[in-house]
Structures are given as C-alpha cells and as structure tokens.
Amino acid sequence: MESAIPSHLQTARSRHRRVPDDYAPPYPSFVARHKPAVTCVIMAYFGVQYRGERSAAATDALAQIATRFARENGPTHWDRAQYVDQAGYTNVVSVAYWDDAGRFDAWFDGAREAWTGGGATEGVGSFIEVLRPHVARYETLFSSLGRPEGVAVLADGMSGEVQEHAYWGGMRDRIPLSQTDAMTPGGEPRVIRDGARIRVVAHDNLCLIRSGQDWSDTEASERKMYLDDVEPVLREGMDFLRDDGVPIGCYANRYMRVVDAEGRPTEKSYGQSWWKSLAALERWAESHPTHVRIFGAAMKYLSTLGPNAKLRLYHEVTVAGADEQFFEYLGCHERTGMLTAVQVARATTP
After folding, report:
1. CA gap 14, 181 in Å, rounded
2. Which of 15, 109, 319, 346 is at 20 to 30 A from 75, Cα to Cα?
C-alpha cells in the first residue's frame, strides 16, 4: 500500500490526516505519478459560448484552437466537451494540459490574442480559464488502471494501490500541501477591463475539480444500471450546483459530455467546477443531500457489481495560489465561469 503523496513531496506533518496509519481502504484506487523533475502542470480551458444552433464563427473558433494545439509548444494532451449552462447557452470547452511552463508560455500569448483579443463576435462568447499549480497543490484519483484521463495523461505512470481514499477527507489528504497548510481562501475577486475583454483576478486557494465517468466498457446490464440508476442522480446534483451552487461556495459548475474529433458525443462525461475553497467542496461532498444521493447511488452500483464493474471513475482536484490563475472572458454572459465570483463579491461588499 502506497501513500498518494509521492515520496519526494512528503514532509513532516503539522496537520494530521483524517485516518490512522493502519487504515485499510475497502477497494483499490490509484493516483497519477509525475517524474520528480516536473514541478508544475498547466490546465487551460478554452471555451466558446452560443445560444441555439452553432454559428459559423463558433465552428471556426473551435477549428482554430485545435490547429493551435497542434503547433510547436502545444499541449501534450487535450480533449473537448460541451454542456448547456444555466442561462441556456451551449458551451464547448477544449481543455489542454502541459507539464512544462516554458512551453506553455511560449505558446500561450498567440493563442490568447486569437481567442479573446479581437472584438466580440455577435452571438458568440469566448473564455480562457487557466490554472498552473505547483505539483504540491493538486491530486488525482482513479478507480482503475489502463486509461488515464485529464492531467494524468501527462504523468510518467500510475501508482500502486494508495491508502488515502474511500473516506471523507481523503481528497484533502492526497494533496501534498495539506501536510502543512489549511489552504484557506484569501482575498476578494476583482475585475480588470481591457477593451471588451474582462479579466478576473480571483483569490488565493481557489479550488477546481474535474470529476469524470467513462461507461464505454460497460455491457448491457451494467450500462442500463449506470444510465438508469446512477447517471440521473449525478445529473440532479450537477444541475443543482450549476443553478444554485453559489450559496454553498460553488462559483460555477459544468456537467459536460466529452465529444470526439467530429463533435459527436462519446460515452464519457465529467463535472468541472470552481469553488471558493476546498473546504466548501468538502462540505457539499460530505453532507449536502444532492451529493449524499450521488454517493448512495454509486455505492449501491459498486457493491452490486463488485470487482466486475467496468465503469471507470476519476478526478483531479487543484487548490491554486493567487499567482497560479488566469481568467479572461469576451462577450460572455455574467454568470459564465469565474465572472460569477465577481458578482458574489459585489453582492457581499457593504
């Protein structure tokens, strides 16, 4: 049994884990392992937003960002997904990953100007949301081996079975920084306007989660069980966070269907959400009725199928420092992504 925290990031704890040293999880899970030389990763979300049928401008933007991804210093891995937000707009999001900040910086300026630097196109919004956390500030978790997703595609490999999972608090315990830091948020979001562009400067220790499901390997009875008994409960929780998550600390939630190169839906999905803090995410996960129902449905599913389950689950969670964030929006509605955080800050300022 390994620790989820790699040996080169382990340090003397001033903050204790939620479980004793002899804790044995009830089922196996695994984490991504980067080479020790990797000090940070970059997660860059490029979104295009429109209402109704996709316009030629939106289609062109999606083609252009894919072309840019293929250029020199482009990402090691990227994927694309889409969803309809609380205002009825379709959002198509291409998320790209690097593990070399120099390569990303060499690539990003041109991509940024092409994506948000021109004038707003009628009926089409665009946004860029980037985190570049030190490796001590994020964690991953996988239910099975053999098919990495998201940032884990960049990793050198996967761990053996890890100890810090299957209990409330495991998410925090897998983040190396949690050994010594409570990772509490600090500061208030603010806006910098650059012509039509809106730049959001968020706050310290902002939290991002991407949590995914892959049912492409499931067969008839298991697929029916997932789609009939689990996915609707998951969707209910995701819709709650999308529509009503702000009071509990969720700035924005996207429950997205992964699409292939031709834009066709695959049998993969993920929720991606911005949270005021890791603690707010933990509170929702541990006690909110919507997540209690998700957890209950998932546990019933997994306990029924046991090791024969073919459903693949994963997530990545980041708590980013104030200097590790970049958010920029052009022509988007005011509840897009981290624009919501600005609305929250204004509403709570005396």
Report:
1. 8
2. 319
Angle at 41 between CA 238 and CA 295, to 5 degrees: 25
Catalytic residues: 315
pLDDT of res. 348:
63
Which pTM does this prediction carry? 0.94
* Whole-angstrom distance, CA of residue 77 vs CA of residue 222: 30
Q: How far apart are CA 40 and CA 171, in angstroms?
A: 19
C-alpha distances out from residue 282 to 57, 173, 276, 333, Å: 39, 12, 11, 28
- Structural domain of 98: 1-349
What distance in Å separates the CA atoms of residue 120 and residue 123, rounded to the nearest whole number?
A: 9
**Confidence band for 54, pLDDT divided at 50, 70 and 90:** confident
Neighbours of 204 (CB within 10 A): 17
Counting beta carbons within 10 angstroms of the beta carbon of residue 17, is it exposed (0 to 12), middle (13 to 18) or buried (19 or more)?
buried
Can you name the residues that pair with 318 across neighbouring β-strands? 138, 208
pLDDT in tens, 35-44: 999 999 999 9
